[in-house]
Design brief:
heterodimer; A: Arc Repressor Mutant, subunit A; 6-stranded antiparallel beta barrel; two-stranded antiparallel ribbon; 8 helices; B: mainly alpha; Rna Polymerase Sigma Factor, Chain: A
Chain lengths: 336, 194
């Protein structure tokens, strides 16, 4: 072995350095040696690549498993280099001792572990109190939703169409789906404001009132087009597809059975936004069909377009179109 | 399918699940904390997909911290996730040169320039390692993940992967790393000559 070989850093030490397991002074010594030893520099760089690349691969794999579990369609992740740096900020925040548990101040400061060098410093926030307050604000709003009313062009449009729609009555055709045939219709409240027959879950439900604005009946199915409003924006659309059919164009197949789960499609206002499937439940309240969307957020710009396929037991239910949107309320506080 | 129940898991139970490697704990966290983070992202020029992406990233970070023992449970998990998600999104906005809304500018806004570390961890470089790991396959890949990500000892790795003992696991790790290095070098050579 040559003198030069004997002066090289052992691979195990390079590995420990790449994993961040060395004390600062030893780590600095490794770096200093690599600065003057191209062979060790190359070996160290390879160790760094493997260590960081393997961690990155593992994170991506875990993220993919989470996405699969929750049914998320996203496939173009934010680069992990950004994410790791952002995480460092949170850990630094945790170390300030000002982190709240919701609104409660933690009595003792905690040790800080900065997980990433470099950009982490640029992301350090002075304290975490604003974060906790911001989050607490969001939670508070969830429990005390502001009332939402429709305004402007939407309301005017509704008023214009009201006279025609108010008198319409749809007699629904026999059901097509065997499971729907077996379902008894759900007891209907006297008015839309009556007690909610659906389970309340303030964390995940938005209660939306909508109108049936069209009908298309065939021998074995009854199709209703529904318009639903979110905030001040509203778009009316219609579609008529058999239950279980796929979305085509701007139409989304949905499946309605009273008090059964329903899938609606939601579009955001921007044209290139992809629709997501929203679990929902529907019930009849007086002469209005009530849709309960199980959403995680609903913003003023959201537009929900739904084409509905209604299947009810034969001769058991009629729906009269009320011709106006009664209102929309949300427990989230996201709406103005 | 009904969404998972949201409020039945205390932080302690969640953390315990993560420590045991139970990934279903993340699913419950996702459901429980999706709304505020979705609102945060969507209020700030993001989409529903962005929000889901950010929350998933935050969950991965939480998982990593808890599993490595570096998570300080001084705040509610929700606070940690929210703060992490916000920083991820801020950095993403800065990187993509998108407008950072005024209500987020009260916080320190990360600049979008890559640090030396990030320059080293370029997407291209990471992609090369990812591809090599995919080519490597298991059990080598699993062993390296245990060692580098889970920071498992060779004893733990041997037990997890069914090797005879720590020495066997260590020897296998050496072989796997050498194989990975060959894959990376051949990939680099292929790019240079291609």
């Amino acid at each position: 072995m040559s003198t030069a070989d004997q002066n090289h850093i052992p691979p195990e030490l390079l590995e420990e350095a790449a994993c961040g397991h060395l004390a600062p002074e030893r780590h600095a010594a490794v770096e200093a040696h690599c600065a003057v030893c191209p062979q060790c520099r190359a070996a160290y760089d390879m160790e760094l690549r493997i260590a960081r690349g393997t961690r990155s691969w593992a994170r991506a794999a875990l993220k993919a498993r989470i996405a699969a579990r929750v049914g998320s369609p996203r496939s173009t992740p934010i680069p992990w280099t950004q994410i790791v740096a952002a995480a460092a900020v949170v850990l630094v925040i945790a170390g300030t001792g000002i982190v709240y548990q919701w609104l409660r101040v933690s009595p003792e400061p905690s040790a800080t572990t900065v997980i990433s060098a470099g950009s982490a410093d640029s992301l350090i926030a002075p304290d975490a109190a604003p974060v906790a307050r911001e989050l607490a604000d969001a939670r508070t709003k969830e429990t005390a939703p502001p009332p939402i009313t429709l305004k402007g062009a939407v309301a005017e449009e509704q008023s214009a169409g009201q006279a025609k729609r108010e008198s319409e009555t749809f007699a629904l055709a026999p059901a097509a789906a065997p499971d729907a045939r077996d379902e008894a219709p759900t007891p209907v409240p006297e008015t839309p404001q009556a007690a909610d027959p659906l389970p309340k879950n303030a964390a995940s439900e938005f209660i939306v009132w909508g109108n049936i604005i069209g009908a298309d009946e065939t021998k074995d199915k009854a199709v209703r087009t529904l318009e639903i409003f979110a905030g001040e924006a509203a778009v009316e659309t219609r579609g008529a597809q058999m239950q279980g059919a796929r979305k085509t164009g701007t139409q989304i197949s949905t499946r309605f059975t009273v008090d059964q789960e329903v899938i609606l499609g939601m579009y955001r206002r921007d044209a290139d936004s992809r629709p997501g499937q929203i679990p929902a439940r529907v019930s009849r309240a007086g002469d209005t069909v009530r849709i309960v969307l199980l959403l995680d957020s609903l913003l003023p710009d959201d537009v929900i377009r739904a084409a509905t396929v209604l299947t009810f037991p034969p001769d058991s239910l009629q729906i009269r179109v009320p011709g106006k949107v009664i209102g929309i309320r949300t427990p989230t506080g996201f709406l103005p | 399918m009904r969404p998972p129940l949201l409020f039945l898991n205390s932080d302690a139970r969640i953390l315990d699940g993560i420590r045991r490697g139970d990934e279903s704990a993340l699913e419950a966290l996702y459901a429980a904390h999706r709304r505020p983070i979705t609102a945060l992202v969507m209020r700030n020029n993001g989409t529903l997909d962005d929000a889901a992406d950010v929350l998933q990233d935050a969950l991965v970070i939480l998982w990593e911290r808890v599993r490595s023992g570096r998570y300080e449970h001084t705040a509610a998990i929700g606070t940690f996730l929210y703060a992490t998600a916000r920083n991820i999104w801020l950095r993403h906005l800065a990187r993509s040169r998108r407008e950072i809304p005024a209500d987020l500018q009260q916080h320190d806004v990360p600049h979008g320039d890559p640090s030396p570390l990030e320059a080293l961890e370029s997407d291209e470089d990471l992609s090369a390692v990812h591809a090599a790991l995919d080519a490597l396959g298991d059990p080598c890949r699993a062993l390296l993940v245990l060692f580098y990500w889970e920071e498992a000892s060779m004893d733990e790795a041997a037990r997890t992967l069914g090797f005879a003992n720590a020495a066997t696991a260590k020897s296998k790790k050496y072989q796997c790393k050498e194989q990975l290095k060959r894959l990376l070098r051949s990939s680099r050579d292929g790019h240079e000559h291609g």
